[in-house]
Target: 3-dehydroquinate dehydratase
Amino acid sequence: GRILTLHGPNLNLLGTREPDIYGRTTLADIHSAMDSRARAEGVVLESFQSNHEGQLIDRAQAAAAEGVDYIIINPAAYTHTSVALRDALAAVSIPYVEVHLSNIHTREPFRHHSYFSDKALGVICGLGAYGYMAALEFLLPRLREHKN
Ligand code: DQA
Model:
């Protein structure tokens, strides 16, 4: 099985970016924890971060050809703006879990709406870096049942 994790803009700064909101865990820490968990299950996990909307769209499109089974996505600020990235996920029809480190519902009103949630398998927010691991744990047995 294959899982792609997509991280949107400014998530490359995790660890130092507004740590009171986003925590002190870096993206590299998140990726290595997820990667070792996935490897133990024989799952290939790839992680891609970009500050550019079009690059995230290109990566989502490429995932279909690569046979990616599931996507874990934190679209970051594009959560609240990007019809284009939403459409890309719909176009490839790869099921996805949406993750946010912070609880977007307790923050500014413009963060309350997501262009991704209504099409997601599920949405995790407010659990910090653990949210990514929770998404992975949710997907691993599904990969076992449906693919391997
Ligand atoms: C975020 C929440 C978004 O509102 C924000 O723009 C981000 C990160 C989160 O993980 O909590 O960049 O997606």
User: Anything to note?
Assistant: The two ends are 7 Å apart (CA to CA).
